[in-house]
Amino acid sequence: MKKILAILLAGMMTATVFAGCGGGGSSSGSEASGSGSEQSSGSSGGAAVKDANTVDPATFGDEDNITLKVWAPDKAVALVKEQIEAFKAAYPEKTFTKIEVVAQGEGDAGTQLMNDASTAADVFSFASDQLNKLVDAKVIAPVAFVDAVSEMNAPGTVEAGTLQNTLYAYPETNDNGYYLVYDKSVVSADKAGKLEDVLAACKDAGKKFIFDCGNGFYSCTYAFTAGVKIDGLEEDGVTQKFSQYDEAEAVKTLQAFSKLMHEYKGTFTSLDVAQIASGFSTGTLGAGVDGSWNTNADKDALGDNFGAAKLPTINVDGTDKQLVSLFGYKYIGVNAASKFPASAQILAYYLAGETCQQQRAEQLGWGPSNKNVQAMDVVTKSEVQQAIKAQSENACVQVNIAPTFWDPMGNLGNKLIAEDTNPDDAEYFTKLLKDTVANVRDEG
Q1: pTM for the full model?
Q2: To 5 degrees, how large is the angle CA 366–CA 147–CA 125?
Q3: How confident is the model at residue 9, as a pLDDT?
Q4: Number of other CB atoms surrounding residue 169 within 10 Å
Q5: For residue 6, is pLDDT > 90?
Q6: In this structure, are residues 207 and 285 in contact, taking their beta carbons and an 8 Å threshold?
Q7: Which domains are delineated in the chain?
Q8: pLDDT tens, 385-417?
Q9: How far apart are CA 146 and CA 62, in angstroms?
Q10: C-alpha to C-alpha distance for 441 and 232, rounded to whole angstroms
Q11: Mean of the per-residue pLDDT values for the chain?
C-alpha cells in the first residue's frame, strides 16, 4: 500500500480535481441520486476522480507498458473483454502491453487468490462472503477511490464491502441471490406465492420442481425459514454465531419442508441449478429456485412463458411462513500483490463504474449496485430484479460467514429429502437441527 499511496499522491499533485479522505457507507437503502457528473473523491492518497467511470490520467503515476490479468465469471468473459477495450481507449496516453481476461468463478476467486497471490489476477470478481478471509490474508488492497464509490453505490453494498472502517472492494452487483423461476403455462402468478401451490401445479402438469437441497448456499433457506439465522462471527473471528431461535418452532418448520418433499416425491427434485434451464428447454420442468446469473438462460428456454417471483411461503401448522434465503453482493477486488497497483485500481474502478454496470444489466441481466443504474428501466421493469429485490427483504446477508457453514447446511437439505427420513419423527429433526448448528460452529 505504501507504493500505491505514493503513486496516487503523485497523481494528486498534477490533477485538476482533488479528493478528500473517504469512509464506508453507514446506512442501508438504494435511493437513486446523481453520480455521473464531475466530482472528486479518493482514498487517503488523494486520487482524482473525473466521473462515474474514469479518473485523472495522472493517477497512473509512472506506471506504463502496463500488463494486467483480470478474473471474470465465465458468462461475463466476452463482455469484460469488450469493456477492457473501452477502458484502454479511455486512456490513450497510456501503453497497455496486455490485459488478459481469464474465466474464474466468483465463488472460488478468493481461495485461488490466497493460494498464490503473486500469480493470481490483478483485478478479480468475488462474492461478498469471501471478504473476511481476503482481508485477514492481506491479499486484497483497500479501495483507492472511496468517496466516489460510496456515493455512487447503494449503501448496503458499501457496508458489506467495509471491514474495520476500510472499504476493501468495489461493489459490482446488488443481486447475488435466488428466486422462484417458473413456466407460466404450468404455474400461474397467483399460485407462485405458496410452495404447496407451486408443487401441486407442477405435479398436475407432470413437471418437476428443482431445488438444490445438497448445496448449502440454497439449502440454508430451510434453516433460516425455521428461524435459525446467522448473526456474524464470534469474537474469535472464525466461529459462526447464530441469533436466538425457538427450537420447537424450528423443528416443526423443518418437518413441514420434509413432509412436502416426501408428499411430492418425483416432483420435488434436488438437482444442481444448472439443470433448470435445460429442464425448461426439454419441457420436463415447471418451476425451480435459481440464481440471478442464470436469468438469460432461463428466459431463452421459456420465452414468453418466463415467470419470476420472490421465494414462496410454506405452511407450518396453519401459518404461512415466508421462505428466508441467503442474499449477498458481488465485488471487484484488487490484488495487493499487483505489480501495477495504480493501474489495477483504475481498472477496477472502471469495471465497477456506471457504464459497465449498465452493460452487465442489459446484456447479462445482472442487478447493479450503482444507484443511477438501479433507477433505469432495465432494472425497474425487470421481473427478475424486482423478484430479487423483494426476496432480499426476506434474507440473511452473505457476509461474515464461516467456512464451516456450507457443508452442514448442504447435509441438512439432503437429510430433509432423504427417502428414509420420516417427516413425523420430531426427535430425529431435533437432533438434526442441533447437529447442524454444532457442525457449523465446528463443535463436533
Answers
A1: 0.82
A2: 35
A3: 41
A4: 32
A5: no
A6: yes
A7: 2-175+328-385 (3.40.190.10), 177-327+396-440 (3.40.190.10)
A8: 999 999 999 999 998 899 899 999 999 999 999
A9: 22
A10: 12
A11: 89
